[in-house]
Amino acid sequence: MPITTFAAIDVGSYEVGMKIFELSKKYGLKEIDTVRHRLELGKDVFESGRFSSKMIMELCTVLKNYKEIMDGYRVDSYRAYGTSPFRESKNAHIAIERVKQRAGVDISVLSNSEQRFLGYKSIAAQESGFQKMIRKSTAIVDVGGGGIQVSLFDKDALVTTQHMRLGSLRIREKLLSLEKETTHYEQLVEEFIHNELLTFKKLYLGDREVKHVIFLGDFFTDIIFHGESVENTITREEFNRLYQDIISRSPEEMAMRLGIPVEYATLLVPTTVIYMNFVDIFKTEAMWVPGTTLADGIAYDYGESCGLIKHKHNFENDIVVAAENIAYRYSTSHRHTHAVAKIALKIFDSMKKVHGMGSRQRLLLHIAAILHECGKYISMYAVADNSFHIIMSTEIIGLSHEERQIIASVVRYNSKAFGYYEEISREIGANRESYQVIAMLTAIHRVANALDRGHYQKIKDLHPVLKDGQLTLSLEAERDFGLEQGLLQEKADFFEEVFGVQIRLRRKKQV
User: Theoretical Cys-Cys bridge with 357: which of 254, 361, 418, 425, CB 3.0 to 4.6 Å?
Assistant: First the structure.
């Protein structure tokens, strides 16, 4: 059985970590080595908004050493990802290029939603525990150096996920000057995060009862809960004792006790206070601490993409459900958006030989159909632009910033005159490949929306057939179809412009 050796590199806020894995269809994912180097990239960026030249140079040295380790293991493939410091740094591109030239390592920057989705996948690597927990109401609290992500699950589906810029390193840097002036630093941290957590509770938790809480957070979950948990579970009583112990000791004491640098120890109080506040919000009696990191999620995702790992859980469905919950929040017509999505996906599938797009673009079309009316919540006027801005301002877990731009643009041009390459490139920075995807998905979405223009879901059955440069839409309709048929022509013209394919409507006779 062939075995693939893979390296996952996480260039985070306060350390650069690398894990080496072996992957195979027979044995799945097996970790064989872990390397860490403390490097507070987030400190530079959160203070000045950019990486210092000295910090970039040190990063190059670290990753050059990691490259040598990968060569020693004869790594078949690797992925190196930057997180919040790279998302926020003004000179991130300069840093990435220098690393590529001097260390020979390519760093890709994860959007926050992509990062948290990989963190979520890292838990899924522990299949039995994960599947059991998310059947009931479950919260995942992921605390990093730059922010917190809280995701709520219910009945095996993602209900909502929210990001707060309240990471442990960010909090430490914000309160650094005040820490020496108080004897109760933990209270200062609690006051600092109180309003954001209260808002989250009011807007997204409501009366929801959370049965299980899962704690993530780089390697700090290992440090905080080391030796405390049984089978990765810790009770509220055990956590209370641990919390009191941490806040009552100085960073120097904790560093000596845990065998970690003092700089790491200064992050323990902010991290623990965040965890404790969520324990109070959820009123949970026990927490699960899987001990996984972003690197585990990176490796899991790679294994999935190569067909080496198969999981029972449908991660793509989580993205769709998250979009449906956003649509619900903005009071869109579920019946209409569901009908448009169904039609659009059928047309997409029938046109594969022409458009050449894959499953990922199909997912983006699905989400665009779900969200295409959300702008009506703000105003019935300028719905297209309102929808665009809502989507660009709303995080959808698992999607990159570029993918969100594609969805938002498809929604905008559903009813607005299509902007050609120069306009869209100037406005959102789309390259030619992204532009082409926007054009093709817009053409399909426009036709699908026209076929339910009256919001009556008249189509009982639809069979699109592509033959000889013509797409025939054979359908059964339950009532008069004059409105939809009349409005379809305008959309069909754009469809032909994009694909070079004419649309013909053929209505089946009612028996």
Answer: 361
Residue in 503, 441, 508 with CA at minimum distance from that of residue 474 = 508
| Distance, CA of 261 to CA of 198 (rounded, Å) | 33
Distance, CA of 374 to chain centre: 20
Average confidence (pLDDT) over 327-356: 94
Tell me the one-letter amino acid at 443: A
- CB distance 399 to 113 below 8 Å: yes
**For residue 168, which phi and psi values (nearest 5 degrees)?**
-60, -45
Burial of 137 (0-12, 13-18, 19+ CB in 10 A): middle
Q: Could you give the C-alpha distances from 490 to 410, 438, 458, 494, 496, in angstroms and in order?
A: 17, 18, 20, 7, 10
Q: Which residue has the tokens 């919000």?
A: 281
Q: What are phi and psi of 462, to 5 degrees?
A: -135, 130
Using left for φ > 0, alpha for ψ between -120 and 50, and beta otherwise, residue 214 falls in beta
For residue 484, the tally of other CB atoms under 10 A from its CB is 20
Q: Which residues, 6+ apart, have CB-to-CB distance to 246 below 8 Å?
A: 224, 254, 268, 269, 272
Q: Is the pLDDT of residue 338 over 90?
A: yes
DSSP H or E run through 355: helix 352-355
Whether this prediction's pTM lies above 0.85 is answered by no
Q: pLDDT digits over 282-326, tens only?
A: 988 888 888 888 999 999 999 988 888 877 777 888 899 889 989
CA-based diameter of the chain, in Å?
83
What's the pLDDT at 511?
A: 44
| Torsion, CA 252, CA 257, CA 258, CA 263, rounded to 10 | 0
**Neighbour-count burial of 283, counting CB atoms closer than 10 A to its CB (0-12 exposed, 13-18 middle, 19+ buried):** exposed
Least confident of 14-28, 160-174, 265-279, 303-317: 303-317
List Cβ neighbours of 149 (8 Å cut-off, separation of 6 or more).
112, 116, 119, 140, 141, 142, 161, 162, 163, 164
Q: Which one, of 112, 83, 120, 117, lies nearest residue 215 by Cα?
A: 120
Q: What is the average pLDDT score of the chain? A: 88
Structural tokens at position 57: 């140079």
User: What's the full length of the chain, in residues?
Assistant: 511
Residues 63-104 pLDDT 10s: 999 999 999 999 999 999 999 999 999 999 999 999 999 999
Which range has the worst mean pLDDT, 444-448, 468-472, 485-489, 500-504?
A: 485-489
SS3 20: strand
Contacts of 3 (CB under 8 A, 6+ apart): 22, 23, 24, 27
176, containing H or E segment? helix 176-179
